[in-house]
UniProtKB/TrEMBL annotation:
The keyword Signal applies. This is Iron(III) transport system substrate-binding protein. InterPro entries: Ferric-bd, SBP. Residues 1-18 form the signal peptide. SUPFAM superfamilies: Periplasmic binding protein-like II. The keyword DNA-binding does not apply. Keywords: Periplasm, Signal. It comes from the Bacteria.
Length: 320
């Protein structure tokens, strides 16, 4: 293990004679190591060198490499679909038409097969079990009783919250009216999922709009929280994987994508505490079956084109 300035952690796995694949990922170091180890066990002929950082930081590094004409990664495995949509628009990604996505919800991968979801991280409604009652829809949150009592991450800060915003703005019964309703009852989105969950667990807020795994883990550890998947649908991020068009190892990169989409790769997702995109793989304890929730997919191509306008509309609603 060695540290690279500005890029955090780099780990090399494999043998000296193996083909080398370079991966940039926003997975946590522990999860990234598990992913690389599991892949390496199946494909010892491919050595993986990986760099971990937040998606925004990785994109900054990648942009600098593009500017310099020296792009290092073969593969990206990051949280932000909008960034991948932008890279796609710029011709930075390689299509993989033969990717093994049979049986997967079409909303979990790019329609042109340039990036592919590897898991489902849905945004639902968390509530404090001591002070709040479960609701069935998003709109049921918008009551005077909940004035200032809903913790909402800001899409100007949180990638999951931005994904949620883009996913619901055109959904009948949710849309911009939901955000206007939040503003009307004194709710101001701020920060990320962590502070929102703490607010709900501590009782400072009755409800929160939070990523599923965080709430389920908190509940399992004894926090007085539970999670609702509203019947009118949930947004989700998929931690997509993409192959860079500049890769010098296209076959090794395809093999890595194949592994993440395989039964073994999806079983690893469940072991790591997230919902697999493969509906035949049993999710972790506390999660519903994938077929029991309504997914609201985000059109990444559209989001790239409307992102500035969406951000400006959001800011105007909340007076930022």
């Amino acid at each position: 293990m060695r540290l690279i300035p500005a890029l955090a952690l780099v780990v090399m796995a494999g043998t000296a004679n193996a083909e080398t694949l370079t991966l940039y990922t926003s997975q946590s170091p522990e999860i990234a190591q598990q992913t690389v180890d599991a892949f390496q066990a199946k494909h010892p002929d491919i050595k993986v060198e990986w760099t971990r950082n937040g998606t925004s930081q990785l994109m900054n590094v990648l942009r600098a490499e593009i500017q310099a004409g020296a792009v290092k990664p073969d593969v990206l495995l990051v949280a932000d679909t909008i960034n991948l949509g932008l890279l796609k628009k710029e011709g930075r990604l390689m299509a993989y038409p033969d990717a093994k996505v049979g049986g997967y919800d079409a909303g979990t991968y790019d329609k042109d097969k340039m990036f592919f979801g590897t898991k489902i991280v849905a945004t639902g409604i968390a509530y404090n079990t001591a002070s709040a009652k479960p609701v069935a829809t998003w709109g049921e949150l918008l009551t005077e009783d909940n004035r200032g009592q809903i913790a909402v991450p800001s899409p100007l800060y949180s990638g999951a919250a931005l994904n949620h915003l883009h996913s619901v703005v055109d959904v009948p019964g949710i849309g911009w009216d939901f955000y206007k309703g939040l503003a009307k009852i004194g709710v101001t989105p701020e920060g990320g999922n962590g502070p929102a969950l703490k607010a709900v667990a501590s009782g400072l807020a009755k409800y929160g709009i939070i990523a599923d795994a965080d709430v389920i883990r908190a509940k399992a550890s004894g926090s007085p929280v539970d999670l609702i998947f509203p019947k009118d649908g949930v947004s989700f991020i998929t931690e997509p994987v993409a192959i860079l068009s500049t890769t010098k190892h296209p076959e090794a990169a395809k093999t890595f994508v194949d592994f993440l989409l395989s039964k073994d790769g999806q079983a690893l997702v469940a072991q790591q505490g997230n919902m697999p995109i493969d509906p035949s793989v049993t999710p972790p304890a506390g999660f519903p079956k994938l077929s029991d929730i309504k997914l609201l997919p985000m059109d990444a191509d559209k989001a790239v084109g409307t992102d500035r306008q969406v951000r400006e509309t959001f800011t105007s609603i909340f007076g930022g």
